[in-house]
Amino acid sequence: MIRLRELRAGDEQALQRIYSPASVRYLARSPMSEDEARIYVSRAVVAAGLSPRTHFMLGIEAASDLVGIAKLGIAHGAGTLSYILRPEAWGQGYATEAATRLLALAFGALRLPVVRAKHHPDNSASGLVLAKAGFSHTGAEGGFERYEVRLPRP
Length: 154
Hints:
Helix content is about 30%, strand content about 30%. By secondary structure, the protein is α+β, with helices and mostly antiparallel strands.
């Protein structure tokens, strides 16, 4: 069981453990530095205070430990979902649960018609997470496997 929560000052070291060399292997970035972590938390705090809110940057907490980040961005009436976990948190269902909860937010309170996601083709575990959360594979484009899920019709 996880808890999604807003990021806050003091999360910087946990962010650096999350954005580790193993975790960013399939991302177009390097591990997170101390300065980047500080800026990331600041941006998350600012994003949480905006109205309307267009970006959710939430911590994934398991047993009071910040083990990952789940994000939902909103632009042009659609959502984009992503997540990243520390390696020792992989394979425990945390990403699937976080994605499922963000979809509930997207289709519930936010009433978005569609949420999209993508993963690197060599990261098949991420594809399994998306499928378990309800996403459908829509093809490959730009070097990524693409997915989406649409608002269920009544």
